Amino acid sequence: MVRFKQRDIISIRHFNKEELLYILDLAKQMEQMDNTELLKGKVLASLFFEPSTRTRLSFESSMKRLGGSVIGFAESGVSSAAKGESLSDSIKIVEGYCDIIVLRHYLEGSAQLAADVATIPVINAGDGANQHPTQTFLDLYTIQKTKGTLEGLTIGFLGDLKYGRTVHSLAYALSHFGAEMYFISPPSLQLPNDFIDVLKDRKVKCHENESLRGISRRLDVIYCTRIQKERFADPVEFEKVRGIYRLSRAMLEEVGIKNDLKVLHPLPRVDEMDDSLDATDFAVYFHQARNGVPVRKAILAAVLGAIA
């Protein structure tokens, strides 16, 4: 039996295939459901120590559409962290005001620390360059909806694979479904070796490339990411890779692609993807962002025990 009630959502590695599919099925139900009172009386604490648009707003929208309410902050400067309060103390205080905490923080491991301290469920909305599990659920949901399956796909991850936490989480999740993966990046932004090792241990076919040329016709999905400027310690190193890739309609036509290719992007985009793609059938990234609501409604309802 799949159990999510009062469960922390910290890393996608904590979920098996059955559990992933359970949330996707539940998200489909949520998408067909009008606003309900499933979470009436429940309070979500939205604690964002880093900037966010899609994740924060979709969590808040999801909670309110299920009849619950939201407290919290969208930047650390307005919290007691600005006065030197530790994260663990902040969590101990906030849990007295709510039923569930959604946390985004710039430090890797912060979500696990919060979960260890809290007596209520904690959902990781991104901890540094580490994990972003709820983004992975909505990425899987988008791929499943647009490709009709998650099984046996060939996925190309393009861009910043070193710091891109969405890539780290999604690649692991897709290993449950027999995916073949191409990791396309400059050498300085390759997927860290420990992630590659984990995927290979799970019998995933992995390939590392610096260009889409020669491989683009094999791909069912391209997952494009921006260069994570905020993760670079040295601005000079960022400038070396800035704008190194620019995905556009003309570029895809030039290298050659499958007619049913789908392009995903966790957003925001900067200069790595041209808006000429927006009107094509390949582009599903705005649908992907909207899928954050049914998916996060499913997660909140399951974790708070509103749905068995």
Query: So what's the oligomer here?
Result: single chain
Q: Give the amount of beta strand, in percent.
A: 5-15%
Number of helical elements:
11
Order of helices and strands: HEHEHEHEHEHEHEEHHEHH
- CATH homologous superfamily title of the largest domain: Aspartate/ornithine carbamoyltransferase
Q: What general form does the structure show?
A: globular
User: What's the total count of β strands?
Assistant: 9
What descriptors fit this protein?
308 residues; alpha/beta; Rossmann fold; 2 domains; 5-stranded parallel beta sheet; 4-stranded parallel beta sheet; globular
Write up this protein.
- With about 300 residues, the chain is of the alpha/beta class.
- The protein folds into 2 domains: about 130 residues, Rossmann fold, CATH 3.40.50; about 160 residues, Aspartate/ornithine carbamoyltransferase (Rossmann fold, 3-Layer(aba) Sandwich), CATH 3.40.50.
- The chain is about 35% helix and about 15% strand.
- The strands form 2 sheets. The chain has a 5-stranded parallel sheet with strand order 7-6-5-8-9, with helices on one face. It has a 4-stranded parallel sheet with strand order 2-1-3-4.
- Helix 3 packs across helix 4 and helix 5 crosses helix 6.
- The longest helix has 15 residues.
- It is globular.
- The mean pLDDT is about 90.
